[in-house]
Automatic annotation (TrEMBL), chain A:
HAMAP family: ChlB_BchB. The gene is bchB. Its cofactor is [4Fe-4S] cluster. Residues 12-436 form the Nitrogenase/oxidoreductase component domain. It comes from Rhodocyclus tenuis (Rhodospirillum tenue). It is an enzyme of class 1 (oxidoreductase). Its EC number is 1.3.7.7. GO terms for molecular function: 4 iron, 4 sulfur cluster binding; ATP binding; metal ion binding; oxidoreductase activity, acting on iron-sulfur proteins as donors; oxidoreductase activity, acting on the CH-CH group of donors, iron-sulfur protein as acceptor. Protochlorophyllide reductase is composed of three subunits; BchL, BchN and BchB. Forms a heterotetramer of two BchB and two BchN subunits. [4Fe-4S] cluster binds at residue 36. It comes from the Bacteria. The lineage of its organism: Bacteria, Pseudomonadati, Pseudomonadota, Betaproteobacteria, Rhodocyclales. This is Light-independent protochlorophyllide reductase subunit B.
Length: 572, 445
């Protein structure tokens, strides 16, 4: 048994739902008790999809357990097919459905439906959401594509002369982090290269579309977490190569363009020009740089960005986004990556390899408390993570940007905000820089710390961000996450029952508590005042370092001098 | 228990299949017409009650013994609103726990021990059963006994089920409170005392305390209490008022302890609150003069607040999907105090005895009220679309899709998470229904 409060991934049938919801003409019959219908709100509330996900739950109850559950399944499947007329039916069980062993696949087959039935066995007590999505997508592709393929030995015919090269885009799904916009951006790149997009799946695809997958020359895999199993099968069985580069960041987008150009046999040069490092200069003969030119390279090189140099950043998320973020942070922002990890054990090896490039050991865990402890220990200046890390960072008073699922309603923005391709890099530049102090502002803040008008958060974040300053400061100083209160909830959504919420006590043991300072060490009042002048987000670290220094040097009373001696001692 | 026989002209009909059309009543009569429906339910399971219970009982921890799905449900239902460090968690059953129950019990002990070491502030631990724990027959009662022995006197361990096989949404609170009743201290005191049963927002609880004091009812307790160490005593002189309509098992358990239920309408709206307080006043022989003196001002405030919203809501047609079992009570409030027209009133479960007074008030309306117990969500959606009501009260899974179809909705979960009981919340309750309509009016989109 694993004790948890918040989880990075839902159960595997939620992954299956993400595939079914992304597609058209698919319906999912899920053998599950009534409470499991909560999953609908993930799509209708968090992602704001305007339609119900295409799923019928059997909602069997205790009174059915004697032997009526199989009947309930058959009735639900029959009714769903009659009502929704899908082209293909997914059938499976949630964790409880799995335990009662009704064999949804067999029951559905016995109904003699005229559409393909794809049974899903998702090992609810072992697997999780992303695996469930990948397995579902693979089963769909395999079941629908196999019948239309020539025998395995048949070699792939070469593309006819005069026919444009084409590819499929695999991976975009429901509840994906910016999948909607990434898709647009990647299509732009492919368009510009003259590569036709044959099928996008699962998002927007019908079962009939899936049967056309083999028509393309190769597959673009945008999200390996979801599409790599299916893509590997298509490579084996249909002879379609698959891309391995994820176009997040300037460098990776460049490599992606080169990779697809190679697979398609086209010239990457015109698109690579848009990724160049300098702003476009007006010159008579230059072609217009439509639709967009990468601004990140210039913005990052412009002098205002000097202040970004060496900012210590902690990164955690799914493997794809975490690895890409680490590369961008290091190569395109000039940050120092101090921590890198993932909750996706299936991809642990890739993340370990990436971490090694920064001289780090990857943090592989699905326990958010472990991640929190690591952040508290490393005390980074910026956290790039999931919804979970956003909350952790808020508690610790560290700036944060979300880079990966799981995420919340505000991570499905109304505006166009891709992560991939040219515009994706531009968006990421803004997103990561925004929570940080601006260049000059940081200097002024350091110089005139006592100016009463200086609040202790970037002024461009507005009053709301400054309000919890005192709180954040306390949390930052003590590293005790128990400082969490309803202050972290958006004001209009605060539930009204809990005036007591403030009394919520942490499940977390105090993480890396400030070494018991009170018993052995004390601070002179001048030193205490001086400490207050240090920006709140590094104050906790300064306090700890100074106390460590004092202890190592056998000091009992910390003076202003000691504070600066410690600073010199630990300065990087 | 009073059934108010003869007051309700009940038309009973059953539609068991998704495709059966809603049976039309032969002759429109002034009555409450009850339909039963079976099909897909679109309601949370009882685990969800933990979201408010863990805030109410401040020294209790709720440990769900369940699957990743249960943890994800809690996260999705609660995470929309809060992300503090909550006093709940899930012990996720994994493959190896399914291998043998002995091992599962050992694992549970390990998880609980670790949890209680980390949380020295916890005085009461609820082991909350789920569908998986029930299907594998993990005996949580036994586990609770064993762990209670280990951790007493510091921590009391109690078990109940929030499984979706047994409970829907608010029934989780019923199961929790019913499980607590045996722990209530016994009293043989013969002076009558009042017990208010069902979680109320702290602010509402305080208002009611003042109101009962003004009525001269000196000994009033609330259940659940804010701290597990302050469990109210119960005995033959205990009279209890239900604050919520979903407490069937809790009421029975209290009756078994000798307490007496005071039948009353539920305290939503001015009329309901008045009737509810009146039931207490009658049981404690409060004079009419005292009653009027104690309640007139608040009732007047409530009515003024309601008058403000009536023009916006009167005549509007409302359709309530089943969610919390509060629906018949809300329907009574919306129809009688705000003049709304009831298209359909769904409820996951209808406790006729506890709702007798509210049903009688619905019965007194000049129109027929269609009450649907149980659910077939697809059929119900068909009826809702066909009726095109002005306002649909429904769960989070249905709200946006219905909005996208041009209907105006109110999320029902807010009705459970907001202080809505009592005179001083009557206006707030009306506002919750008026807001979506007002928003529709404002937006030029
Ligand atoms: S319905 Fe059952 S399995 Fe689903 S979340 Fe509720 S208790 Fe868990
Ligand atoms: S603060 Fe609220 S809305 Fe924001 S991520 Fe957390 S739970 Fe979601």
């Amino acid at each position: 048994m694993q004790l948890t409060v918040w989880t990075y991934e839902g159960p595997p049938h939620v992954g299956a739902l993400r595939i079914a919801t992304a597609m058209q003409g698919v319906h999912y019959v899920l053998h599950a008790p009534q409470g499991d219908t909560y999953a609908d709100l993930l799509f209708t509330m968090i992602e704001r999809r305007p339609t119900r996900p295409p799923v019928s739950y059997t909602t069997f109850a205790a009174r059915d357990l004697g032997g009526n559950t199989a009947e309930a399944f058959k009735r639900t499947a029959r009714d769903a097919v009659a009502r929704y007329a899908p082209q293909a039916l997914l059938v499976g069980a949630s964790c409880t459905g799995e335990l009662i062993q009704d064999d949804p696949g067999g029951l559905a087959r016995a109904l003699g439906l005229s559409i393909p039935v794809i049974p899903l066995e998702l090992s609810a007590y072992q697997r999780k959401e992303n695996w469930g999505a990948a397995e579902t997508f693979y089963q769909l592709v395999r079941t629908l594509v196999e019948p239309v393929l020539p025998s395995p030995a048949t070699p792939r015919p070469p593309r006819a002369p005069g026919v444009a090269p084409s590819c499929n885009i695999l991976g975009p799904a429901a509840l994906g982090f910016r999948h909607r916009d990434d898709l647009v951006e990647v299509r732009r790149l492919l368009d510009a290269l003259g590569i036709r997009v044959n099928v996008v799946a699962p998002e927007g695809a019908t079962p009939a579309d899936l049967t056309r997958l083999p028509d393309a020359d190769f597959n673009v895999v945008l999200y390996p977490e979801i599409a790599s199993t299916a893509a590997a099968w298509l490579t084996r069985r249909a002879g379609q190569p698959a891309t391995t580069t994820i176009p997040i960041g300037i460098g990776a987008t460049r490599e992606f363009v080169e990779e697809v150009a190679r697979l398609a046999g086209v010239d990457p040069a015109p698109v690579l020009a848009r990724l160049a490092g300098l702003p476009p200069r007006r010159s008579a003969g230059a072609a217009p740089l439509a639709p967009a030119h990468a601004r990140l390279p210039w913005y990052s090189r412009s002098v205002d960005s000097t202040y970004l140099t060496g900012k210590r950043v902690f990164i955690f998320g799914d493997a794809t986004h975490a690895i890409a973020a680490a590369r961008m942070a290091s190569e395109e922002f000039g940050f120092t990556v101090v921590g890198l990890g993932t909750y996706a054990r299936e991809f642990a090896r890739d993340v370990r390899a990436a971490a090694a490039r920064y001289g780090l050991e990857a943090l592989i865990t699905d326990d958010y408390l472990e991640v929190e402890a690591k952040i508290a220990e490393l005390h980074p200046e910026l956290v790039l993570g999931t919804q979970m890390e956003r909350h952790t960072a808020k508690r610790l008073g560290v700036p944060c940007a979300v880079i990966s699922a799981p995420m919340h309603v505000q991570d499905f923005p109304a505006r166009y905000a891709p992560q991939m391709g040219i515009e994706g890099a531009n968006v990421i530049f803004d997103t990561w820089v925004h929570p940080l102090m601006m260049g000059l502002e940081e200097h002024l803040l350091t110089l005139f710390r006592e100016d009463f008008e200086f609040h202790e958060a970037p002024s461009h974040l507005g009053a709301a961000a400054r309000a919890p300053g005192a709180e954040a400061e306390r949390a930052a100083e003590s590293f005790a996450p128990s400082a969490a209160t309803t202050a972290s909830a958006p004001p209009d959504a605060a539930p009204s029952l809990p005036p007591s919420a403030a009394a919520a006590v942490s499940l977390t043991p105090p993480v890396a508590p400030a070494p018991a300072s009170s018993d052995t060490l004390s601070w002179s009042s001048e030193a205490e005042l001086e400490l207050k002048k240090i920006p709140f987000f590094v104050r906790g670290k300064a306090r700890r370092n100074t106390e460590r220094y004092a202890r190592e040097h056998g000091l009992a009373l910390i003076t202003v001098e000691d504070l600066y001696d410690a600073k010199a001692h630990f300065s990087r | 228990m009073s059934d108010l026989p003869g007051v309700i002209g009940v038309n009973l009909s059953t539609s068991d299949t998704a495709s059966a059309p809603p049976p039309a009543p032969a002759t429109p009569s002034r009555c409450v017409e009850i339909h039963h429906e079976r099909g897909q339910h679109q309601v949370f399971c009882g685990l969800t009650g933990i979201i408010w219970l863990h805030r109410k009982i401040q020294d209790a921890f709720f440990l769900v013994v369940g699957s990743r799905t249960c943890a994800h449900l809690m996260q999705s239902a609660a995470g929309v609103m809060i992300f503090a460090e909550p006093r709940f968690g899930t012990a996720i059953i994994e493959d190896r726990d399914l291998a043998g129950l002995a091992d599962a019990h050992r694992e549970l002990d390990r998880v609980v021990t670790r949890l209680l070491e980390r949380r020295p502030d916890i005085r009461m631990l609820f082991l909350v059963g789920s569908c998986p724990s029930e299907v594998i027959k993990l005996d949580l009662a036994r586990a609770a006994e064993r762990l209670s022995a280990t951790f007493s006197p510091r921590v009391r361990v109690v078990d109940y089920t929030g499984s979706g096989l047994e409970t829907s949404f608010t029934q989780g609170e019923d199961a929790c409170l019913a499980a607590l009743v045996p722990s209530l201290p016994a009293t043989t005191d013969t002076t009558p005392s009042l017990l208010v049963v069902g979680t109320l927002a702290d602010v509402v609880e305080d208002q009611f305390r003042r109101q009962f004091a003004a009525l001269g009812i000196a000994r009033v307790d609330f259940f659940p209490p804010r701290r597990s160490t302050e469990l109210p005593a119960v005995g033959p002189a205990t009279r209890f008022l239900l604050a919520q309509p979903f407490l069937r098992d809790t009421a029975q358990a209290l009756e078994r302890r000798g307490a007496t239920h005071l039948p009353a309408p539920f305290p939503l709206g001015a009329e309901g609150t008045r009737g509810w307080l009146q039931a207490a006043a009658d049981a404690f022989a409060v004079s009419p003069a005292t009653f009027t003196a104690a309640t007139a001002a608040a009732q007047d405030r409530a009515e003024r607040a309601l008058a403000h919203y009536r023009p916006q809501l009167a005549g509007k047609r409302v359709f309530l999907f089943p969610d919390s079992q509060l629906e018949p009570v809300l329907a009574r409030f919306l129809a009688r105090e705000l003049g709304m027209t009831l298209v359909e009133v769904g409820t996951p479960f209808l406790h006729r005895a506890h709702l007798a007074a509210d049903l009688a008030l619905l019965e007194a309306l000049p129109t027929t009220t269609r009450l649907t117990e149980g659910q077939d969500v697809d059929a119900q959606l068909d009826r809702c679309r066909a009726a095109r009501p002005d306002l649909v009260v429904c769960g989070l899974g249905l709200a946006n899709p219905l909005e996208a179809e041009g209907l105006t909705t109110k999320w029902s979960i807010e009705l459970v998470f907001s202080p809505i009981h009592g005179f001083d919340q009557a206006g707030d309750l009306a506002e919750l229904f008026a807001r979506p309509l007002l928003r529709r009016q404002r937006l030029a989109l």
